[in-house]
Amino acid sequence: MGGTTLLSTVLSILNVRYGASEMHQKADWLREYLDIQDSGEIINYQRAGTGLSLIQSWVSVVLLLGALYTGVVTGAVDWLNETGLHPATQGVLFFIGLFAANRIVGVPFDLYNTFVIDEQFNFNETSPQLWLRDLVVETLVGVVLLGTLSGALLILIELFKTALWVAGGWLLIVAFLLLIQVLYPRVIAPLFNDFEPVKTGELRDRIESVFDRAGFEAEEIYTMDASRRSSRLNAYFIGFGRTKRVVLFDTLVETLEGAEIEGVLAHELAHWKRNHIWKRLGATVVQLGVVLAVLGYLLTTDWVFSLFDLPADATYAGLFIALLFVMPIFELTAPLVNKLSLAHEREADAFAVDVMGEGEPMVGALSQLATENLSNPFPHPWYAAFNHQHPPIPERIRLIQETAEEATSDEAT
């Protein structure tokens, strides 16, 4: 855990320094494509956000290790054992307690990020009342989801032997991930934002035009009131079957030109057209299978429990310790998962060029997104490999232009 945090710290520092250096050296590119005359604001924003994130990461690591080595975690497990509750119930309470502690530790950092950093760089639109409401609702949703999943998983562990609970747990988590794809757009997201279907007007006409060129019937397109909290621009695709939808931030609709919005929409439709959601889910399912197999093995060992003097019958405590050793698998294999996502994003950009018949709308949209969001256009390659699921903006623009030129050439011949 400390090792992966150290790796993340080194990569983050490299990323900020590399980005600042590249922005100074490629000032002409910034002026031409992003209309940025001075990169100082982007550099300062990246430094502020990265610094806060690193401090939070190390504070969390120190507090967790302190709780483990001072016996706080062991004491909590002993207390739960003495309650006489069912082991699965004890485990649910244990994991909810960890979740609550993590939320409490994160509160001052989130406050500083929202009301100091975002305020300084003109992103924040959130009121203290709305921030508090979000904190409460997010916590309640997290408790319900975590309690349900951990409880079901712990019951499987108690009922079956290693191989059976690993297989059952794998199926359970896959089903949970599919359920989230259904619940998030219809139940969870509306707890935080209002979603308005785009029905009439110029935007609807443009949407129908893009859908027609992409080979779809226009439906399930929403605008979201993101401006209640932030001025950042974004759009996303989520769900499957009848729950699938494309969501456009109202800030994006208000900022981009009509053709640029069409380009963004065509890009999002590509994820639908090319089954990217299912492919990414498949990669996650394989990764989860490996992780659960390792967890199953670790729970059969004595040292997982004896490491912090935990009761051998407190399976949930052993699962937690095992997770601390296994979670780095997710972090260290991130480049493999991100590589798949990068390929999907390039494919979606090419699809958008094909639908639009040119590359300029997507280039304009990407330029606006990078400028308005103060994104680092030149991330360090190592940092990007572990953290980015989208190619760097300069690469995307170059590939879009090349794709458009090739299409024009093919038409000419």
Automatic annotation (TrEMBL):
This is M48 family metallopeptidase. It holds the Pfam family Peptidase_M48_N. Binds 1 zinc ion per subunit. The keyword Protease applies. The active site is at 268, 349 (proton donor). It comes from Halovenus rubra. Residues 199-403 form the Peptidase M48 domain. The chain crosses the membrane at residues 52-72, 92-115, 135-157, 163-184, 281-299, 319-337. CDD domains: M48A_Zmpste24p_like. It comes from the Archaea. Zn(2+) binds at residues 267, 271, 345. Residues 43-193 form the CAAX prenyl protease 1 N-terminal domain. The keyword Transmembrane applies. Belongs to the peptidase M48 family. Keywords: Hydrolase, Membrane, Metal-binding, Metalloprotease, Protease, Transmembrane, Transmembrane helix, Zinc. GO terms for molecular function: metal ion binding; metallopeptidase activity.
